[in-house]
Amino acid sequence: MDPLTIGIVGIVVFIILIFMSMNIGLAMMIVGAVGYMLIVTPAAALAQLRTDPATIGSTYALMVVPMFILMGNFAFQAGISSGIFDTANKWLNRLPAPLASATIAASAGFGSICGSLPATCATMCTITLPEMRKHGYDDKLSTGSIAIGGTMGALIPPSTPLVIYAIMAEAPIGKLFIAAIIPGLMVAGLAIGTAIILVTVNPKLARKGDPFTWKERLVSLKNLIPIVILFFIVLGGMFTGFFSVNQAAAIGAFSALIIMIVSIKQKKELTWAGFKTKFNDAAWTTIRTFGMTFLLIIGASIFGKFMTISGLTIALSDYLLSLDVSRYAIIALMVLVYIFLGMIMDDLPMIMITVPLFLPIVTGLGFDPVWFGIFVIFMMAIGAISPPVALNCFIIYGIAKDIKLTTIYKGILPYMVTLAIIVVLMTAFPQIALFLPSLMLS
User: Fold this and answer.
1) Whole-prediction pTM value?
2) Peptide bond preceding 161: is omega within 30 degrees of 0, i.e. cis?
3) Model pLDDT, residue 118
């Protein structure tokens, strides 16, 4: 069997293992090692298994992952998410879909300190869904707003999937984070606009918001202080070149710890036992999440090397680049591939499979790797809300078991159009993603 055929068979076997519920990182490691063994030698495959974990574990850039995860967990323990929703609700209450709009806005705010798509979706669903149902919101509108809001955990920096892409593509993490700001805010704005249009067309989907005085609105702004502090420390420090990415992550985690302590004190719960409980919960959640992420990165490294020596990436790249069509036609073909993959698998394996295959093609077409990173994250977000395997929809279904999964699917359809519009705009005008990175001081 020639190496190219082995590469194709390897991808098929990998997909089968995922559908058999095998751990994604382990599946990639097994397929990559066996493929490497068949193409090269068993000794070479064992050498990869022996050296890759140590090499990746000593990668300086990888330090940002546990730090940003820890920052998000400290922020969650501080109760920041509920405060953001309260503020957003008070300021957006005059819109036709106030609670749905507040959910999306709050998700964007929490996503800026969380970095995780499933964590953002689960957190906001727990907080906002009971409120929307209490106020008589249609379940389709409620769940659709939460599902699109959940994608903010990946779209708004700092984003763990962007870090994984950066490591795989050897792209600058700081530039990727800054590049995600404008597209991420565009998603939040257009998603709120989508909710407003839906309720304007069918007012029965939601009722008017509760009245709030200007004093109540202004007082609620104090809930945003932690977000503003963390956002400007982390992203502001990176943008100005005052901090490296690793330094920003560490300082952000420490700042979130201080915010958690202040929050506990304000609630008059500042006891050693209370602090220890919250600290341990944040620490253990971080350890578990990073362990899973670390295994994914190791598996992706071994799988990527297998794809390279099989010649599949080069063959696919040469074929697509030889086609006498516009580069936008090739990007459109990639979009279709991503949509299909998003319908049958979770977001992270989709990144792991496609980046090694598509990155050489995209750079060969003249697109910037930083732009492609944002493109990939958007396609991952579309996959997270695309039936039948839609991660965000299943998270909501797991929390609100009395809502039918088909209802959640119907609710998310208008927001898929929202994401698609931004992907088209970002492809036609790459500067949407590349403008801010071009202004960075380092």
Assistant:
1) 0.83
2) no
3) 83
